[in-house]
Design brief:
The complex is a heterodimer of chains A (about 210) and B (about 220).
Chain A (H helix, E strand, L loop, with lengths): L6 E3 L8 H12 L21 E4 L2 E4 L5 E3 L5 H7 L4 E8 L18 E2 L6 E9 L5 E7 L11 E2 L5 E7 L6 E5 L3 E5 L5 E8 L10
Antiparallel strand pairs in A: 1-11, 2-3, 4-5, 5-13, 6-9, 7-11, 7-13, 8-10, 8-12
Chain B lengths: L6 E3 L8 H12 L21 E4 L2 E4 L5 E3 L1 H11 L4 E7 L29 E9 L5 E6 L20 E6 L6 E5 L4 E4 L5 E8 L20
Antiparallel strand pairs in B: 1-9, 2-3, 4-5, 5-11, 6-9, 6-11, 7-8, 7-10
Classes of the chains: A mainly beta (about 210), B mainly beta (about 220).
């Protein structure tokens, strides 16, 4: 199998100025973190209880509510990154540990393709542990590139094709149409996202 | 670096059975084609009255209403083409004859250059053309990337760089990158096509597998 490009570290793109990083951190801190999916619907990434099987065990995935950073970020992103975005937000990994269906900390998100975008620029601004990983998967007998909001329910049907530890405060471009998951999250993971319906950099698309 | 692709002829994909083609044609021909944007019932591709500047002249763009085919096409597409689609539909090209900018069928033959509003790629299967020499063109706007966000409309088109044009065959699947500015040109009458609208490229025909190199911005 020819392995596609799943991500690219975009270290040539300028770092976010400190005041923007602080604004994103304050945005997350000002939100009440939901303990169950029905307590709160964030603007950009609605959350729901998702379960999947890993090594035969059923786990509840971590949630990743994403809150808008528009319009504070618009001009800076337009001037320094791209004008071709469709959303700008900040996401924070959480556990639904007050849900009656909680299965214990799984340390990872669901295995999914994204619902609202095809690509995303990630910019990690806070993490509890430095070995958090984004892993890319292919489902047996399926295309690598999947339609939106595809969720794999059993990891045994998947093959790991690539992974990246996103460096702090560095833009990383992710193909979110490939099944992926955030793994080994032992606490905080706060990430600024620039969401895209196209690939303005020509990284993934010829 | 792999060169940019605007379209790929997918002639290895199976032809649509005649009974489904007939259903799609019936669906188009059963519709009353609107004379103005305001009389159109919104379906997959809303009609707007769009006037754009070409060679310094304001021209009325042709429109491309598209109607859903999911109710009858889903199973066949899932089994024979892909399960990763977003919309299935059939479209035809029309000119809004009620517009004050309408001149004639012979002169209003082009669409405004645009990126698509509801999809990133489409598998198109032409069923009927009013004239054989209809073509599809791709463009890049100077100072902007090749791949653009959704629903970019080039109201002023004289500054665009034309990247290429192609006449597509009928009864053959063609995959188009609709994130690149494009339009249908020289359409003098009908242009009926089945569309499989996609937000991903399940075939990987447009996707890079070689090491990345920066794409120049013109």
């Amino acid at each position: 199998m020819q392995i596609p490009l799943c991500y690219k570290v975009m270290s040539h793109l300028p770092p976010l100025p400190d005041e923007y990083v602080q604004y994103a951190l304050d945005t997350v801190a000002s939100r009440k973190i939901p303990k169950t999916p029905d307590q709160h619907i964030p603007e950009q990434n609605p959350i729901s209880e998702v379960f999947f099987k890993r090594n035969g065990e059923t786990l509840m995935a971590r949630g990743n509510p994403r809150y808008s950073l528009e319009p504070f970020f618009n001009d800076w992103i337009n001037d320094n990154i791209t004008e071709e975005w469709n959303q700008i937000g900040v996401a924070n990994s959480i556990l639904f540990d007050e849900s009656p269906n909680y299965t214990g900390d799984s340390y990872c998100s669901s295995l999914h393709s994204d619902k609202t975008r095809s690509y995303a620029l990630f910019y990690v601004i806070a993490q509890s542990n430095s070995d958090q990983e984004t892993v890319f998967w292919k489902e047996h007998n399926k295309s690598i590139y999947r339609k939106r909001a595809t969720i794999a329910t059993d990891q045994k049907n998947l093959e790991k094709i690539d992974s990246v530890v996103c460096p702090m405060k560095t833009w990383v471009f992710i193909n979110t149409s490939i099944l992926h998951s955030a793994e080994n999250i032992r606490g905080t993971r706060t990430v600024v996202h620039v969401s895209l319906d196209c690939d303005p950099f020509g990284v993934f698309v010829k | 670096m792999e060169k940019n692709l605007f379209y790929v002829v997918m002639d290895h994909l199976p032809k649509i059975p005649q009974e489904l083609v007939d259903i799609a044609l019936d669906r188009v021909k059963s519709k009353e084609l609107p004379a103005t944007a305001s009389t159109h019932q919104k379906d997959q591709n809303p009609i707007y009255e769009r006037n754009f500047t070409r060679n310094g002249v304001t021209k009325l763009s042709r429109s491309n209403p598209r109607w859903g085919l999911e109710d009858v096409f889903s199973d066949w597409i899932n089994k024979n083409i892909t399960t990763e689609w977003k919309q299935l539909g059939v479209s035809t090209s029309i000119i809004l004859k009620g517009s004050p900018h309408f001149v004639s069928e012979e002169l209003n033959v082009d669409q405004v250059p645009h990126t698509d509003e509801t999809r990133h790629y489409t598998l198109m299967y032409l069923l009927a053309k009013g004239n054989e020499d209809q073509y599809t063109s791709w463009y890049q706007e100077p100072g902007y990337p090749l791949q653009r966000k959704r629903d970019v409309i080039m109201w002023e088109s004289d500054h665009l760089k034309k990247l290429g044009s192609v006449i597509f065959p009928t009864q053959t699947w063609v995959m188009l990158n609709t994130n690149i500015l494009h339009n249908a040109e020289n359409v003098k009458n009908e242009r009926i096509a089945i569309h499989v609208g996609l937000e991903v490229d399940p075939f990987g025909v447009f996707m890079r597998t070689e090491p990345y190199a920066d794409t120049p911005v013109l």
